[in-house]
């Protein structure tokens, strides 16, 4: 009869050194992966924009994907490599999708990545609502 994992003896590796622990603590910055940092940066920018424009941000769904699709829609003249906005249709809300790998590859450092995320979000929100990006965020593009 097997014992449940929480009642089993502590597993030791074959050299007898014990259970391995993470190299970095969970509160240290190196613990997060690049994709985790990207998700956190997107969430912080959305929180900031939601504080200023809750009526614009509320009805929109946001998503992060690794790479853009390899087959663009036939009506698109030029494929969107960094982000894409999808207008609301019958039964589905408006969506904004950010593509992580192209944005990370163009950014020089973390600060530059945060600015790129901010600019892409503001640009796509402005595109959805038919406004200029400067109306939504005066620091856009700086």
UniProtKB/TrEMBL annotation:
Entry-linked SUPFAM superfamilies: Metalloproteases ('zincins'), catalytic domain
* Highest taxon of source: Bacteria
Q: What is this protein called?
A: Metallopeptidase family protein
Species the sequence originates in? Bifidobacterium choloepi
Query: Which lineage is the organism of this entry classified under, starting from the top rank?
Result: Bacteria, Bacillati, Actinomycetota, Actinomycetes, Bifidobacteriales
